[in-house]
């Protein structure tokens, strides 16, 4: 399997930032669903689910792997084995749409919509680096934590900043 490809981002009217990724993972979609929708699955790559009511409009509270404060909200889309969407305070709308590729791999069409970055591109770079590392963790071991790394996050942030710096020059 190839490494997680670079994500993209765009600013939208109304001060919203959209972050997109499409990781192609070597797991059947039925195996990925519980990794995206159960406390045990989320713990290994996204965060500790302090609350997770697994149904449409269910409550959810996630504590991020980097030790940041928990984010609470609701499950705003739930289509079993296809789509799950969490809308969380501070993190915005986080949507995972699973599309099987054959019988043993899956593409996740991912979208994170949140309040926009303003004039400083730092929020955009942080969001891209954070999600990129999350998808690397998911690809490496979808059911066992391999550990969040501040050093890896910094490398990823720099990789997203380089194209931005070249465009400004």
Question: What does this entry look like structurally?
Answer:
The protein contains four helices and nine strands. The protein is α+β, with helices and mostly antiparallel strands. The chain has one domain (about 10-169): START domain (Alpha-D-Glucose-1,6-Bisphosphate, Chain A, domain 4, 2-Layer Sandwich), CATH 3.30.530. Strands 1, 2, 3, 4, 5, 6, 7, 8 and 9 form a nine-stranded antiparallel β-sheet that branches. Strand 1 (about 10) and strand 2 form a beta hairpin. Helix 3 (about 120-140) packs across helix 4. The longest helix has 19 residues, at about 120-140. It is globular. The termini are far apart. The relative contact order is 0.20. The model is unreliable at about 165-169 (pLDDT under 50).
Topology of this structure?
Elements: E1 8-12, E2 16-21, E3 24-25, H1 29-37, H2 39-43, E4 47-52, E5 59-64, E6 71-79, E7 83-88, E8 92-101, E9 105-115, H3 122-140, H4 150-168
Antiparallel strand pairs: 1-2, 2-9, 3-9, 4-5, 5-6, 6-7, 7-8, 8-9
Helix pairs in contact: 3-4
The major pleated sheet works out as: 9 strands, antiparallel
- Element-by-element helix/strand order: EEEHHEEEEEEHH
CATH architecture: 2-Layer Sandwich
Tell me the CATH superfamily: START domain
Total helices: the number is 4
Instruction: State mean pLDDT (0 to 100 scale).
Output: 86
The CATH topology:
Alpha-D-Glucose-1,6-Bisphosphate, Chain A, domain 4
- CATH hierarchy, class: Alpha Beta
Amount of helix: 25-40%
| Count of spatially separate domains | 1
Could you tell me how far the N terminus lies from the C terminus, measured between alpha carbons in angstroms? Answer: 35 Å
